[in-house]
Structure formats: C-alpha cells, structure tokens
Give the backbone structure.
Amino acid sequence: MTGPSDGRPPSRLAVRVEETTFVVEVEDLPAGGLRVEVDGRPAEVDARLSPSGTGSLLLDGVSHLVDLGDGRWETVLVDGEPLRVEIEDRRGRRPGAPSQGSAGAGQRLVAPMPGKVAAVLVEVGQPVEPGAGLVVLEAMKMETEFRATEAGVVKEIHVGPGQAVNAGDLLVVIG
Amino acid sequence: MLGKLLIANRGEIAVRVIRACRDAGIRTVAVFSEADRDALHVRLADEAQPIGPPPAGQSYLAIDRLVAAARRTGAEAVHPGYGFLSENADFAAACRAAGLVFVGPPAAAIARMGDKVAARQAAAEMGVPVVPGTPDPVASDEEAHRAARDLGFPVMIKAARGGGGKGMRVVVRPEDLESALRLARSEADSAFGDRAVYLEKAIVEARHVEIQVLADAHGHVLHLGERECSLQRRHQKLVEESPSPAVTDALRAEMGAAACRLLASVGYQNAGTVEFLLDPEGRFYFLEVNTRLQVEHPVTELVTGIDLVREQLRVAAGERLGYTQADVAPRGWAIECRISAEDPARGFIPSPGRIRTWRPPGGPWVRVDTGVYEGGEVPVHYDPLMAKLIVWGRDREEVVRRMARALDEFGVAGVQTTIPFHRAIMRDPDFLAARLSTTLVERAFAGGRGLPTPSPDRARAAAVAVALRARERVPGPMPAAPESSRWAMAGRPGPGAPRR
C-alpha cells in the first residue's frame, strides 16, 4: 500500500513534552516503512492512528495507547496519562506561544479557564505587589482568585464583574 | 411500585436514578436547563422537560417549575438526587402538596436535621456522643470567648445552617477568635442567609466515618455499615471506601446503633446518612445528618449487594424493607474515586469544556457512574463531577491495586481531570498503610506536589507520536492519498492495557 510515492522529505522536529525536549527525525524508506531517530538514537516504530487522533504506537516493542486529538497538541494522552506537549523550532524556541503570565517586566493575566468574572479587585493606576489579588473567576460553583506574580502598576483592565470570559482572554495587564 | 418518576437533578446522579427506575420498570422524566439539552440524562430518560436557563436558581432550584413539569407529564413521584433541592424541606413539602411522592424523608425530618444546632440537640438527647460545644448559637463575642476558654483551644466555629465547609473556621489562638467569628458570620450570611454560628472543640487528626441508614414507613430502621471519607480537600470528599480500616465489628455495631436510634427518634424514612468524626483513640462524635442519597453510596452497594436507589424507590412506594439487621452481611472492600473536571496540577482549578476522548476502564468489579460521554460538554454552570469510579476487591490490598489499574486505563482528553491525583493517591504510602485523616491531602498534595512525574517511556512515545502526526500534516511534493497514510486507518481501539 505504502511506497516511495509518498516522496516526503525527511523531517526533524523538536518536541517538548512537559519539561523534556526530544528531537525526532523521520524519513520514509524507499522500500516502505519508516526510519525514526529520537535524540540521535534509532527507534523501532509501528504506528496506527484513527482520524480522530486515537491509536496504537509500538515503540521499540512497547505498546502505547495514544490520543492526539485535533492536532492543537496542548495535551496528549499516552496510556491515559495527560502530557503537555509543544512543537519547538530548530533552535528550541516555542513559536507563537501565547503570552501567558509574565514576559520579562510586567504581567499579562490571561484567563486559564472559561468562567464568569465574580470580582475585579484592582483599579487602573493602582500599584500592586506580588501575591495581590487581581481578579476572581467563578466556574462550576467555585471561585478562584488570580494574583499578581510581580510588582508593578495596573495598566489595563479588560473585564468587569458579571462578564463571561473564555480561556485565553486577556484580563489584566501589570506594567 | 411507582409508574412514572421525575428526576429533579442532572449529571451522573440523574443517570444513576434513571437506571434504577428502568431496572424496576418505572418510566422516567428527565428535566434539563438550556445548558443541558445534550446531556446524557436527557438521552437516557423516557421523557424530558425543559425547565429554564442555565443558572441553577432559574432551573434545577426552581421548585415551581419542577413541580409543574411533574404534573404536566403525569409523574407520580420525584427523586431529588443529591445537592440542589435534595435537602430542602420546602421542596419535599411542595411535592407532597401537589400529590407527588417525594423519594426521601418527611419534610419535618429534613427541617429538623438541616438545622445543625437542632440536630446536635436531638443526638445528645438520644445518647449519641456529640463534639463538646455550645448548645445554642453564640450571641456575642464575649460569650464566644467564655465558651472557647471552657472548651479549650483549638475550637471550630460552625454555621448553624452550614454545609460544604462554608462558614467554618478553626481557631488555634484566643487572639484570632474575634476576626474568625466575623469571617464565619459573614460567610454564613452570604451562603445560607443566616449569621448564626456555634462553637465546637476541634478534633485534630480525625477520620470522617459515616453510617448508611435505611428506614421504611413501617418502623423498620437498619444500617448498612460505614463509609470512610477522610480524604478531603477543603471539606470536599475525594476518595471514599467501605469498610473503614479504623472500624472494628464492635465499633461498627455501636456506631450503627447510635445512627439508627437518632433517625428513628425523628420519624425518619428512606435513605439517610449519619456523619461522625472518629478520633485516634477510637472515640466517635456526631457531626451531622445528610437527609438524602450520598454521592459515595455505591461503595456501600458494592460491599452489601443492596441497590440503595432501588430501596429508596421501594420505601417511597410504601413497601417494607423485608429484611433485618442480621441479614445485612458486608463482604470485601470497595473504593470510590471522584473524577472531576479540575486540574490537580494547578490547584484544582475548574476545567470545563468539550470531552475529546472518554475511554473508561472495564473488567471485573469495576463500575463507572457517569453523566458525560465522548464529544459531550462539561458545562461551566454546574458541579465539576464527571464520573465516579468504584471498584471492589476481596480485601483492601486487592481493591487498591484494582483501582490503580482502572485509573491507569481511564483515558480522558479535552478537559483536565483529577485522574492523575487519584493515581498518585493509590500509590501514596500513608494511603496504602490506611493512615487516613482529613488533613492527608493538604499535607501530601498541596500545590500539585506529590503528583506523578511523567514516565520517560511515555514522554518519548508522546514525542514520536506528535512528530509523526505533524509530518502527516506537512504536504509533500505529491499529495498523499489517504490509503497511503503511515497512520493506517485502524478502527477505534477498545480499552487497551497500558503499561507502566
């Protein structure tokens, strides 16, 4: 079924899984099958995956059940264990990562979950210390307070009490 | 038996009740808010009625809408589940006034046991040990100081109408008493509309042990043994088991008799639970009564072989229990893990959303009670409980191993879940040695500590799988036909046997 007609060039990707980065090289063999190397060492790979992203991966003879989902790769499951993954570029930097938390000086507080704003605890222009409460989000009958991670002044507030927010929405900017 | 029953609830407990009804040949009516049109309980019920917008106050807590839905559909009975209106005496009374059978205790018993101070008094009158404390709510700060001195620090402040840990404060030092009183009163006011608080001596390193009671309308009251629910986080139970490793046959008989005596004295009927604290010396103290089915009722079902929801329906229909205390013979050990849409690595923050993968475990003596399905949504409006995983074994060692295995099989993606937390608990030395207390979770797992680190094997497998999939998406010079995909189009696999 498979053959040299694929004609894809070899690929080399750095994949970060939780805190560890693996460099994975994949090449189609002319006779069919794959040549795979992980961190420069050859690996024996037999993969079967359904279009939904669920399937079986035999890696050096060890059987893994994987769920990759829709390809946004935020979290994949391996043998039921959720692992946070990210594809890095060749220099090991993360392309297009949303600016969550602190980025050098200042902090951009982003909603980590969908919910409703129960309270905004600061005002624009107000100085804050690390640990100061900024916004309280309510979801699933629980209130969670989100706090400043560094000292600064409240530059922007993007939400008000009662407002519904989605995961990833910008809430407060500290500068 | 009843002909048609409305379930005034949602989620896994609505599904649980529907299943018991179908087993008994009773037709079911589900109710749903606008957020739950696609929920599993709506799909499984015989009939379904919309009851309003997503906020619970306008749907699952709206007594008039629920009663109207029952009348409209010709239901004869209402099962309240747990949470929502299950311990609301007004709801029980409204159902009975509308000619509906309320599957639960009489409204008067709910009201009496719902008032913590009145329940303590009833317990004390029946000779059930209570935690030493003030007999009535404390009227002033001076009175609280006097009472705390008499009891001895640490003391616990509790809301008279409390529940779920709201309005509860432990006070270790006398100088902290006044501010703690202020906070507890304000919390009690906003949660229950009642500022009244009372004081108890705080029992440290206590276990939470509760007795399941069944009572019929003909004066028969018996208990089905105990459940230990010591593993809690912020007063929310996470893991429950039956029996309790700390309870001997003699202690079980003593606690069971005390629980039955108390509920019989208030004219209780149907299923109810009496909660106790058990101190390290084996002394037990009355805590409160839950006048409803408990979330953790399945562990009792697995060790006794008694279907508690079926018993609830039989009792509500006026049938006799038909067996005695001597006929109740618990066997083996059962554990339940609550699987919630929360992220244990980030302080258990809620994680609502669409369930991309849902692959529950299987095999002998493994039970999954759930209200969700693959592709379904966990709405942001309600409790994060998605499923309860309950397993049975001949003894504690076997059941813990089986639970660890079942958790390893449980695959959920799309939302974060408490499954990694439970996997860690099943390997925790204190848990394995049955050294349980209500502080174990905070001590061992605060801030995501104690969660398992990913196995290097699985991390490597994740990297390879992602790299192969990413390669699929990069078009080559010639577009590859689907048949030539390296990812062969295998069908969906059943639950596999993951390796550790």
